Amino acid sequence: MSDDGTVSADTETDVFEEHRPLLMGVAYRMLGRVADAEDVVQDTWLRWSRDDRAEVREPAAYLVRITTRLAIDRLRQVQARGEAYVGPWLPEPYVTESGATVPDAADRALLADSVSFAVLVVLESLSPLERAVFVLREAFGYPYAEIASLLDRGEAAVRQLAGRARRHVDERRPRYEVDPARRREVTERFLVAASDGDLDGLMSLLAPDVRLVGDSGGKAKAPARIVHTADKVGRFLAAVVPQAPAETSYRFVEANGGPAVLVLAGGEPDSLFQLEITDGRVTTVYIVRNPDKLRHLAAR
Fold it and tell me: Can you say how many angstroms the Cα of residue 98 is from the centroid of all Cα atoms in its chain?
């Protein structure tokens, strides 16, 4: 980068890589799909490497503008196709190395509350513009004026979009335990009880109104509808989990801002589950079984 802040060809790759975590954070929150987010970031790179950067004085804003607009376009395309998803939908798990240090603000933001399964499910019901404004404002703290510039919208309109999106999310955002140590402890106890078919042990962990949300996309075995109540969820888990093949193994990972368990069958990803916990009791069991959403975890 030159003394006046413009970007030279010699540094274009370094500048882009410096901002890649931020761009991935924006794209993933916008789309809820790792592969789609990676595609958007790659398209952003292609535009960045092709465009004339002589007048680019704020690379981060320039790159976020491209990424956000590409993500909005992709969301609109998905909505226009009107594709019906088989069974409950969950985001594609975004996994980081468990226990890894978080080097900068962009990575810390990626693991904040707004990347949780619960919130991303709510964000699916927002319009693309509402989702973009919510992500940029709530997850990354952009001022309204800057969001307006990024989206080519008036600041008053952006404030209205932000308020509408925030109310929508707050009305539907569940309250849950955020302490990772506490979540890990309950998850470990849950895994032991489920693996042993210990119904009493499971019932001691499940809230009375617990839900089990299984995402298979119609491509693996999972409940076709959300399962409600401790009795039904506990009996389902106590009956199904102990039947796992002998070569099944479990690995703790950090996904979407909290501890999760990656289930491996013969060394390949079979499913990933994560718990929502409130006051020490499990309020939601999320299980991702759609193989398309687990393929990127194979190298973990």
Answer: 16
Q: What is the pTM of this model?
A: 0.86
Q: How many Å apart are CA 73 and CA 30, to the nearest integer? A: 11
pLDDT at 79: 78
User: Residue-wise over 65-87: b if at least 16 C-beta within 10 A, else e?
Assistant: bbbbbbbbebbeeeeeeeeeeeb
Amino acid residing at 224: A
> What digits encode the pLDDT tens for the residues 226-270?
999 999 999 999 999 999 888 999 999 989 988 999 999 989 999
Burial class (CB in 10 A: 0-12, 13-18, 19+), 134: buried
Closest by Cα among 293, 268, 290, 296 to 219: 290
- Under 8 Å between Cβ of 144 and 155: yes
Q: How many residues does the chain have?
A: 300
DSSP single-letter state for residue 6: P
Task: Give 33's contacts (C-beta < 8 A, 6+ positions apart).
Answer: 91, 92, 293
* pLDDT tens string 144-184: 999 999 999 999 999 999 999 999 999 988 777 777 889 99
DSSP H/E element including 146: helix 144-151
Beta-strand relationship, 281-288 and 248-255: unpaired
| DSSP code, position 299 | T
- 166 phi/psi in degrees, rounded to 5: -65, -45
DSSP 60-83: HHHHHHHHHHHHHHHHHHHHHHTP
**Under a CB-based contact definition with an 8 Å cutoff, are residues 279 and 232 in contact?**
no
CA distance 88 to 108: 29
Under 8 Å between Cβ of 118 and 174: yes
Instruction: Give CA angle at 271 (241, 182), nearest 5°.
Output: 75
What kind and span of H or E run contains 213? strand 206-215
